[in-house]
Amino acid sequence: MEATCQCHKNKAETGMMAGEVELAKSAAPGGDTIFGKILRKEIPAKFVYEDDECAAFHDVNPQAPTHILVIPRKPIPQLSQAEDGDEQLLGHLLTTARKIAAQEGLDKSGFRLVINDGKNGAQSVYHLHVHILGGRQMHWPPG
Predict the structure, then answer these.
(1) Which residues form the active site (predicted)?
(2) At the N or C end, where does the chain have fewer CB atoms within 10 A?
(3) Which residues are catalytic?
(4) What distance in Å separates the CA atoms of residue 54 and residue 92, rounded to the nearest whole number?
């Protein structure tokens, strides 16, 4: 277990894993995504929260001891493509992330929320998602 934690620490200290950056460079918006398949229960995920507007589940490639993704059920490809009419949904995503962080006990020591947008933002799945990262000291700048 310690080796896993050390691995995450090293990834955080050196920036994003090269594989994630490469995935982001080759990813493109459009079509179905892995998150759509997860929402339809075609691919298993460890869900921690679901409602009519969003769902949250553990990341399969965690970058911290706690790494949960919060995604809208509405397929918004990226934050920069959200519309003014999505304001309530975007607020709900952040409120849900806050509640999940508290549920996971992260509100006591702190946590980080991340939204990657586009290729240069290292977005590797073109379905808007909020990363909840916690359980260790985060570093700045992130990458």
Answers:
(1) 129 (tele-amp-histidine intermediate)
(2) N
(3) 129
(4) 8
